[in-house]
DNA sequence: TCTCGGGGTTGACACGTTTTAATCGATGAC
DNA sequence: GTCATCGATTAAAACGTGTCAACCCCGAGA
């Protein structure tokens, strides 16, 4: 059940079988045919661990995302898988579930597996957990995360711009008080989108106090509902508009508000982020900020594989940054059309 | 950068280091401490391929689902990951994207990786592609798929019952004509749910011609929209109710119908399947059939690991079957409450 | 006929870990 | 004082593949 048995059956040496598998052009047609037949007859499957052991690295890349249940990340994963499989790489997909500890544990597993490279959407701000890999010479590309470090690649979308775009539109539409609903601010996505929102606030001549901030433990719909309940129950009047750090939160917020009899967008406007597929089909179709998600995955993978193939030499690290795009739907569309910035 | 360097640094033999890693109780406290320190100092990470090579199999299980973009499968994956990591196994997650060819290719990769076992949601009816693994003695558990074969485990939900439940309710609510929207019938989920719907039809005293069938290439929202367009444009009047083989299809159908000005459920009732989280937040909250998704993943993983640990001996294969549950929301709720079966 | 060259093939070693049998040292019983 | 015992440690042999230098054979050129 190994290369040796195949060799015996085909009447050649193990080395030749290996050549058939890895450099078929170096072996004569007749021999190759014989070997291939033996492979089929015996149902031989190459032992990946032996190859990996010998080569020092596998032909597998790791992809670690923040949350597998978020369609944003599965879209991204699709981009990664498509490119990887085009180039003959397999993908090990893992989720940190927004937990630093799980990220660390999973990265360790990837290191043990001797993956060729890793795509990481880090929980922390600098992806320091990935040092286990970088120290071993394993290329790491940050995904959906810009980096100041010049010694690594990154692919991201400008979340500050996105936050400004989103909050700016809400303010343009006449909102004078906002709420910002987000996960913990260690998540760069939350921090940057918040920063953008604050800029928009300032540009509209409003102070910080015009924006209430609600922080929840996770960026999913359940947490969104929790945030809405908090807004509903703390005695203060609801804000004119709610900007959520992602669509899952926004959908949860919306659901809870509607259930409480709040009218969207008449009473409160809602804006999400990511423009996941479900947002357009929501009870009140959700305004959101669209990102080139699938492309993000593709480009990041291309950068990673380029770095892998170059063996460190000749590869120039790149920090790619995309610009997001506003998608306005009913959840933020004021009854009488946009009011402009005069309100 | 291996066990040898650690051994040298700690002044012991490689065998002892291995013992520290795998059977710490067998090594004296002082020695163990010294080795552990050396491990930290050198930043040693065990080479998984070498272990796997030596052991003949890795401590990794493979999970192949039909569609990563479907929340049903990510819920399921969560169950799998939770159990696997509790037991010290890592999970390699892959998606066949409902393609038999991709399933085959990915299973081959898993075989090469010498995974310890595989959880498979098969595209075809019998999971024959997994024979590459079974022949090598790798346990395979079918997930969301019952099996007649007594020589393997499976965990599933009764989709025939679910289909009957769903269609039955639509008929009870007064529908006299149905449409069934589904993916290709090689997908067992589609075939079974259809069978259940036909049973309900018969039970209501209606013939097959009362149910139009729309088959689309994939079970996602885009295909759902395509199905709705077909129903809208083929000249015939719309059916009283539409039963979709999963929620993604149903959300797509609903979206397209609403856009065309069709009232849901007054003009047409809609029923989905899976009860994914988004269904409750849809434009018209979606009636659906709920499955114990997360539990499905947990139980399947427990069965798989049991089989792995038993090394084939003493393990009795089980075919577990859950019963689904109807969740009625607005999309199928007639204005005046259920009309009963009087038509 | 001898040499040279080159494509095709081979043999042996290395990759890093686990495991088993053997070794070593110390302790306690006789 | 000797021997058996037992716990802790070691040395060496696998696991299956890839690689690289060596080798073989055959045909071409001298």
The H/E string of chain A reads: HHHHEHEHEHEEHEHEHEHEEHEE
Share of helix among residues of chain A?
Answer: 40-55%
Shape of chain A: elongated
Mean pLDDT of chain A: 94
Number of DSSP E strands of chain A: 12
User: How are the strands of the biggest sheet of chain A laid out side by side?
Assistant: 2-1-3-4-5-11
End-to-end span of chain A in angstroms?
77 Å
Beta strand % of chain A = 15-25%
For the largest beta-sheet of chain A, the strand count, sense and barrel status come to: 6 strands, parallel
Rounded to an integer, what's the Rg of chain A over CA atoms?
25 Å
How does the helix and strand content of chain A classify structurally?
alpha/beta
Query: Which two chains form the greatest contact, residue counts included?
Result: A-B, 51 and 51 residues
How many alpha or pi helices of chain A?
12
Write down the oligomeric state.
homodimer
* Weakly predicted, low-confidence segments of chain A: 337-343
